[in-house]
Amino acid sequence: MKKIYLGAVFTLMSIFASAQDYDHWSIDIGGGMHQAGSTLSPGFSENIFGQGHIGYRYMFNEKFGLRLDLGYNSFTANEDSQPFTSNYYRASLEGVVNLGSVLKFRTWTNRFNLLAHGGVGAASLNITDPVDNGGDVMFAMNFGITPQFKLNNRFSLFLDFSSIIHFYQEDNFDGGPNSATRESNISLFNTSIGLNIALGKNKQSADFWRGEEAIVVNSELESIKNRLDTAEKEIQVLKTKESSPNKELIMTELDNRYVKKGETTYGDVVTSSNVDFIKELLNRGYVNVFFDINSTKIQKESLSSVNYLRQFLYDNPYVNASLIGFTDETGNEDHNQSLSNNRAKAVFDMLVASGISPTRLSYGGVGEDKTMSKGARQLARKVTFKIN
Question: According to DSSP H, which parts of the chain are helical?
Fold first, then answer.
């Protein structure tokens, strides 16, 4: 028991350490297509590929941050255009808003996110063909949106759609003169695909940080730790009172404390940082579904346990579960076997009806729970979970 207790405590400590914070710094690396706006001369058109950018971002919290963005575009003529070659360099300081956090995307998805960014900077257009312009320096305003797809806590893929407005652009991208040099031009559209990498020891991107929900998880896990601590002390009292430990009494004490009807034992939020720990608790039987005597109807107070398993499976789409039914010692062996199987089937049907694929579930009954005495019949009439 001490080994189990200490293992749980160390696991909790590691969870608290990793879930306390996220990495404020990250880097964006992307590239893809571009399209010049109004600043091309008649008879000129460009190849659409040839742009890339790298961004260094700092998030003050999970909603707002700043980014230094460095961009490069290479413009060359396509087959329908007169020849030209130019290079474009840009640096801008931008504000970033995590729209996924602001709009609470985490209430319906753990994979998709959306950022918005906008800022100002400077750019230089260097034309090399047909003439060398020596560099055309201008002001630039950049704004766009960035959908993201989370690969894991540190890495995410992104698409970026950006529009760049230039001020005081004297030359067109093909080398011709810009007829509206003192006016703003929506000069450039960039579409990029790339990778975002969280930088830091936490290995947790601020973009997908669960914010207040993570605090709830920490609170729930702290409650579990305290209850395990209490249970360990009370077990020591039981051992002191009896020369040999009464395993049945110890088991009943634990069930009475950790399988309380109507209690959502561990909360509704399961994050990637505590999946293994929650899986272990489920497999150890801390969350069960209970039934009345000779009944396959789930007790109303146990619906929260079914919902907890549903949420765990939803949050972890590569996990499967086995449902194992039990009965008390009343009834003959054949009846108990059928009853326990039907209880597991009732939980199976409810999970499938709630949207869990039946291919991720299996069920069966084992009949009487022979670990229980007559005094613990109510705890024997149950379905337990085995996470695979």
Answer: 2-19, 99-102, 212-241, 247-258, 275-283, 303-315, 333-353, 377-380
Cβ contacts of 123 within 8 Å, gap of 6 or more: 88, 89, 90, 91, 137, 138, 139, 140, 164, 166
Beta bridge partners of 122: 91, 139
Q: How far apart are CA 338 and CA 53, in angstroms?
A: 64
Rounded Cα distance between 86 and 147, Å, is 30
Greater model confidence, 278 or 241: 278
Query: Residue 252: exposed, middle, or buried by beta-carbon count in 10 A (0-12, 13-18, 19+)?
Result: middle
264 neighbors 302 (Cβ within 8 angstroms): no
344-377 confidence digits (pLDDT tens): 999 999 999 989 999 999 999 999 988 887 777 8
Closest CA to 142 of 197, 90, 101: 90
Q: Give which of 61, 57, 73, 213 is closest to 146, Cα–Cα.
A: 57
Angle at the Cα of 226 from the Cα atoms of 268 and 22, rounded to 5 degrees: 55
- The model's pTM is 0.53
**Degrees, nearest 5: CA angle 147-73-130:** 155
Residue 267: the pLDDT is 40
Indicate the DSSP class of residue 299.
P
Number of residues that this document lists for the chain: 388
